[in-house]
Amino acid sequence: MNRLARIPSLPVWRLNWKPAHIRTLRLSLGVTLAMAIAQAFAWPLAFITPVLTTSFMNGNKPCPGLKQGISLLIVIVLACIAGLTISWFLIDYPVICMLVIGVALMNIFYLNSGGFSPFLVVLLLICCTLLPLLAQQSFGLSLLVAFGLLFAALLALLINWLLHGLLPDNDITEQQIENADALEVQEGKPVAQRVKMTLTSLIAVMPVVLIVFTMELTNSALIMIFAVMLAQNPDLQTGYKGCLALIVGNTLGGIVAGVIFSMLIFVPSYGFMLMLTFIVASLCAQTAFSDHKLSPLAGMVLSTVVLLVGSALLSADATALEKFVTRILQILTLTLYIVGAFSLASMDFSKAFTKIGLKKS
């Protein structure tokens, strides 16, 4: 039974709203609120809060209850502890450290291939890559960022609860909410297919991780985070259309982020920044929860925008614009690399060589 049917005190306008409209407003407000808090308090890794909020609220799944939320937090704490353990014990043994990180990434990608929570997948990927990277510079820095990441995840969860309380879904029953499990993995895909997807993602992303770790490119931490986030994208496994969608989505996100950042240089106002965030989030959310053919790109565009703009604003200095443009170019180049790596890893070379042999003959 629909829970709204048992609450006659709700205003008429709320009852008449379509589910897509409710989710659009909720995502727009959630991303804006996350950006507002992140920019106001600017703790370590604060810019990841809007990204986590986007991945949490960009979908039709029921809001996790208290028990599910506590389970999420426990998993996040354990992930941070695991990342810090690697940082403390293995950072002086680079070969072993890379092997352990590779195994961790393989397990995370395997969970992702089974439909595991995107919110948790992003956090797990960040914990097993970013924390050991920062430990190369200082374990204290790694510990500080771990607390910042944990706070960002908690804040994203609280924002999700708050807005689901204010704007509840009118097409989801209480039973569905009670049965919702953020840690559930779907069993529909064959194991062989999941293993193939896992290995493809791992082959694509490991060279980036190896280069960043080997050369101790701490300043490229954001690029590495973006790489592992791209590698979990299931659309890349669907062939040409999925790869093209990734390129278009991140290109659009980079262009929109550049426009927003340029406008904020001329009007450096906190209120103006929030207004732009809400407008962009509303446009992306409206497309994401519609039947439009570009709906799969909307969430990708929004994640790219809040990641680029949020990180740039929190690290603003005299060369902020130059760094921002460089970062956009790096991310677009990285997108092309990930697409190319997925294409090569997914290619059936035996068929390709057979075709070449037939053409020669």
Number of strands: 0
- Secondary-structure-based class equals mainly alpha
| Radius of gyration from CA coordinates | 21 Å
Main sheet properties = none
Rounded to the nearest angstrom, the distance between the terminal CA atoms is 67 Å
Any idea how many domains? 1
What is the N-to-C order of secondary-structure elements (H for helix, E for strand)? HHHHHHHHHHHHHHH
State the low-pLDDT regions, or none: 1-9
Mean pLDDT: 82
Described by the principal axes of the CA atoms, the overall outline is: globular
Task: Provide the β-strand percentage band.
Answer: under 5%
What is the share of helical residues?
A: over 70%
Number of helices: 15
General description of the model:
- This protein is mainly α and 361 residues long.
- It has one domain.
- Helix content is 76%, strand content 0%.
- It has 15 helices and no strands.
- The chain has helices at residues 12-15, 19-41, 48-57, 66-89, 94-113, 118-135, 139-166, 174-179, 191-214, 221-231, 240-266, 270-288, 295-314, 320-346, 349-360.
- Helix 2 (19-41) packs antiparallel against helix 12 (270-288) and helix 13 (295-314) packs antiparallel against helix 14.
- 40% of the residues are buried.
- Mean pLDDT is 82; it is low at 1-9.
